[in-house]
Amino acid sequence: MINHSFDTKIPLNVPQRQNPLAIGFIFLKFLRKAVRQLWLLILIVVFNKGDGYMAWLLGGVIAISAIQLVLSLISYFKYYFHVKDGELIISKGVLQKTNLNIPLDRIQTINFQQNLLHQILNVVSVEVDTAGSAKSELTIDALSRDKAEALRDYILQKKKELIAEKREEGELDEESTEGIDTPEVEEFTKPDKMVFRLSPKDLLKVGVSGNHIRTFFWIIGSVFGLLQFIDVTEEEAVDYVFKGISENTWGFGWFVAGFGVLIVASFFITLIQHILRYFDLRLWETEKGFKLIAGLFNRQEQSAAHRKIQIIKWVTDPLKRMFGLHTVRLFQASSQQVSAKKSITIPGCYEEQLEEIIATNFPSELREDYKEHAISPLIITRHVLYFGILPALAVAGFKAFTGDWFGLVYLLWIPIVWLLSRRYQRYWRWWINEETLTTRSGIIASRHSIIHLYKVQAVKISQSPYQKRKNLASVHFYTAAGSVGIPYINLDLAKRLRDYVVYKVEVSEGAWM
Amino acid sequence: MQETLFLNPTIDIGQLPHAEQSERNPLSPTYLKIQFLGLAITMAILVAPGLIMMGAGAPSMAYYLFFAGWGLLLIFRLIIIPLGFKKKSYSIRDKDITYRSGLLWHSVTTIPFQRVQHCEVNRGPLDQLFGLASLKVYTAGGGSTDLQVPGLSPEDAEQMKSFILKQISGNDQS
To answer: Which of chain B's residues have a Cβ under 8 Å away from the Cβ of A496?
Structure first.
């Protein structure tokens, strides 16, 4: 382990300010926030030019913003942090003084973030994540890299000592019953083995095989959203477009061209989004888990301890399959609601990389001797009824009722749903052995999830009236980072599955996080 | 034609204790009264818009429809509540707690004590009025897994809570 000198060079036990560069970052943060909150207002004012009332409103908002800006700039000078007596102490606040004392053993993770500016200035912003309390996160906007690393090492070191002390005094038992904040040391100080690196070529593949359909609808959504602010309703816009087509003032060609532009735009926006987010993505396997760094302008560093990983999911779709790529997600336990932040996404993994990543948490011997199970075909009947027959009958019936016999074409929806449901049921698989459960589902995409049985928190067996009649049930396994469910299996099998998993949890000695 | 769970099990799953074989404890009948009282309060609040419509001289068709809907909801709830009550039960075993509920959509949730974060005894205003309590068990699985057993006598609830807490610390020492 690298030995940082905590004492002379970088003293951490006296109250100190952040790096002066933080003022700049505070200002940028303020700007970003202001623009995000006020762009609508600015748009409205621009489009209602000359409206005195609006101008007053804008003036008022600008005045308030100016005060906020001054306050946030002063806040830099009022922000002190230091480490003392096993606590990270932050004092801050301009008008209202706040003192935050965070016991080091409550600190879950310390993440560094660097956007482009950070990189140029060689500073990092530090995020300290604690479990339990609502105010679980605190951010230090800018610290020099040395100091940030010293702080992290110091905290981890102190935390380790504290835990060792506690363990000796036998206080740990009481503590660990209290909750997730089990004081465990996490070290990400020694990035030793690079497991995965996204090459520019693969990054391009990831971008090309991204979810363009989502972007497509996102664009349409934003266009409609924007129209509202220039006083055009959706109907007017749609009317305008269709009138243009039907009266041939535009010509059908224009419509097709517009559609083409939308598709091309979706493609490039998706591509750019992926490149911004996953540029030069590197995944390291550290002593205790993973560390991931990625991003073009905003380089994000995320970490996950092996112990904390509850679910691993991997997804592929026809487009990605063409390139042989999978997207892997690692879901970590968190005391707060499971947020996207707590899951680590690794796009663009090839088969063998996928296997390597899964194997770090689920060694292949834990995935041997799998017994394969399917789900009941009766799920097709149900899906066809709920998603096919009922909606199609409602729409077609209504159309026929209003004399539009052409509406019967909606009945074609039923066989489509039947085909999709059949595919869904036929593709659904779950595999179990005495240690792990893997599920596979999907209609067009293919989604896998894997969990350790002993990491399950709760099991729920549920039955709809129909399932009750057919002696079927759905089972859900809840972990500290989301759930894995199996629909439509035999009730008796569901109960045995539940009994086994509960048994497995009850005899397990391993820490689930 | 029982489907086997595992490929080659080393332990006999048939021998595992069934989470449901243990005794099913019904909730206190007083809880049914609370549910009816709760219904009365909700329905009393819900009737207000109808009365206002009537008083404001809205077309009679409007409030007829409203009262018809209101009446149907009342009848539906009156039938559902007692039937649903029968479906609610809990079991406590040495190492886990199970709660069942739901008349049409039935669900059975089991939480091993090993995974309990903490548990608490709650007493709402109606509970206090009728001398009842509910036990809430929290896990790290998030809101959807927190298990709440309503309609317990306060003594039972406290006893269950201390039993669970004892089991948790017992597990830790081993």
So the answer is: 5, 13, 16
Q: Does B104 touch chain A (CB under 8 A)?
A: yes
The shortest CB-CB distance from B107 to any of A177, A432, A461 is to A461
Q: Is residue B111 part of a domain?
A: yes
Backbone phi and psi for residue A376, each to the nearest 5 degrees, phi listed first: -65, 140
Beta bridge partners of A102: A88
Within 8 A by CB and 6+ apart from A378, the residues are A470, A472, A488
Task: Tell me the residue type at A470.
Answer: K
From the CA of A151, how many Å to the nearest CA of chain B? 29
Give bridge partners of residue A143 from the DSSP assignment: A124
* Token pair in block for residue A256: 């097709």
- Do residues A141 and A25 make contact, with C-beta atoms less than 8 angstroms apart? yes
What is the spatial distance between Cα A98 and Cα A150, in angstroms, rounded to a whole number? Answer: 25
The pLDDT, as a whole number, for residue B111 is 93
Boundary residue ending a domain (B84, B100, B122): B84
* Domain final position from B40, B56, B84: B84
The string of pLDDT tens digits covering residues A283-321 is 888 777 888 888 887 778 887 888 889 999 999 999 899
CB contact under 8 A, A335 and B140: yes
Q: How many domains does chain B have?
A: 2
Question: Cβ separation of A498 and B110 shorter than 8 Å?
Answer: yes
Q: Give yes or no for residue A134 having a pLDDT over 50.
A: no
What digits encode the pLDDT tens for the residues A445-500?
999 999 999 999 999 999 999 999 999 999 999 998 889 999 999 999 999 999 99
CB within 8 Å of chain B, chain A residues 178-217: 178-180
Do B45 and B112 belong to one domain? no
The closest CB to that of B16, out of A176, A178, A499, belongs to A499
pTM: 0.72
Write out the DSSP string of A328-375.
Answer: EEEEEP-SS---GGGEEEEEEE-HHHHHHHHHHHS-GGGG-SPEEE--
Q: Of A30, A58, A59, nearest to A44 (Cα)?
A: A58
